[in-house]
C-alpha cells in the first residue's frame, strides 16, 4: 500500500508540473496540442473577403483580339481579402508621411533602447514641420529657396526613400543547400508619386492645376493615387505589412500573412464577383443601366469623357460595388498586379493559385519588366473594362491612369463554405 501511494503521489506531482508549464492533462487520451491560443482571423480595415473557389478565366469567344492571349481555362484560388476600393491619395499620404517622419527622426537621433541592448527608431516623437528651428536641423530634406524655382524653400520629395528587404522563399526552396541569406533582396525605393504625369502625358494641355494639387490637396483625398509605379506599390505593401505586424505583435496577437499586390488571376476572380463568364463586374453585357447612367468611369461614346460623370478620375467609392463588395474594379484607374505579362501565359501556369513572377536583375531583357495591369481606366474605351482583358506596363513607369489595391492572403482552411468556420 505504501508503494502504491508513492506512485500516485508521483503522478499527481507530474500532473502539477505539467499544468504549471502550460501543458493541460490529457488523461491519457489523444487530444492534440493544447498549448496554443484559440485563433480568430482578423479583418483588415477597408478590405472585403473573396471566398475560395474556381472560375472560368479568360476572354470570351467574342473577343477576337484576346482569344489567343487569354484563352478560357479553369482556375482554383484560395480565399483572400482585397481592398474594397483603390488606394486613395489620403491612404498613400499616410505612407509618405511615415517615411518622411522616420527619416527626420533618424537625422534627429530619436531612438529607443531594446531589451537586448540594441536600438530602434522612436516613431512616437511628433515632428513639428512648421518649426523654423527644426527645419534648419532637417535642412537636408529641403530644396533651398534659390534653387526651388518657387522662390521659397520646399520639401525635396526625392529624399523620401523607403528601405526594405524581401526573402525569395520559392528560390530558397528550390536551392535548399544554399545559405538562405543569398535570397534576401534589399530595396531603396523613392516613394513619392510622380505628380508630373498629368503634364508629361498630355501635350498642349493646361493640366498644371491638377499636377499641383492632385496628390496633396484635401479635395482629392478620396481620389485614387496615380503616378505610382509597380516598385512603389511593392514598397507600400511592405510598409503596410510592417505597421500591421508591429501593432499586432505589440498586442501579443498572431500575424498571419503579408499585404501584397494581387496576381492577375486573383484580380479577375475578384472582379467577376462570382459572375462566371460575365464580361463586366456588374454582369453585362451593357455598360449603361435602365436609367441611362453609365456603370463605370471610362471613355464612352466617341471620346465624351464627361458623359459618365467624371472628366478624369473620380472618388474611389463612386459607382456600385460588385457582388463581393468591390468598387471600381472596372474603370477609374487601371490597377497593377503582381503578375508578369507575356503571351500564352495561361498555357504554362498551374491551375491552383497560379502566379508567374521574375526576379529581374540589371541587364535582363526589357520584356521581363512588363507587369499585367487590369480593369481599364477613365481614359480607356469599354473593351478595357472587361474583366478578362489583359494589358501591361513596364514596372518602372508611372501613369496618370494607373493605381492599385492590395490583397491579404487567407490562411485558415480554404473552405468554399465559410459558415463551417464559425467566424
Describe the structure.
- By secondary structure, the chain is of the alpha+beta class.
- The protein has two domains: 47-88 and 191-421, paralog of FGE (formylglycine-generating enzyme), CATH 3.90.1580; 93-159, no CATH class.
- The protein is built from nine helices and 16 strands.
- The strands form six sheets. Strands 1-4-16-11 form a four-stranded antiparallel beta sheet. Strands 14-13-12-15 form a four-stranded mixed beta sheet. It has a two-stranded antiparallel sheet with strand order 2-3.
- Strand 5 and strand 6 (119-121) form a beta hairpin.
- The chain is globular.
- The N and C termini lie far apart (53 Å).
- The model is unreliable at 1-20 and 417-423 (pLDDT under 50).
Ordered list of secondary-structure elements with their pairings:
Blueprint: H1 2-20, E1 47-50, E2 53-57, E3 73-77, E4 80-83, H2 89-108, E5 111-113, E6 119-121, H3 132-137, E7 142-143, H4 145-148, E8 154-155, E9 161-167, H5 169-174, E10 184-190, H6 197-200, H7 208-213, H8 230-250, E11 259-260, H9 264-272, E12 334-340, E13 370-374, E14 391-394, E15 402-403, E16 407-409
Parallel strand pairs: 12-15
Antiparallel strand pairs: 1-4, 2-3, 4-16, 5-6, 7-8, 9-10, 11-16, 12-13, 13-14
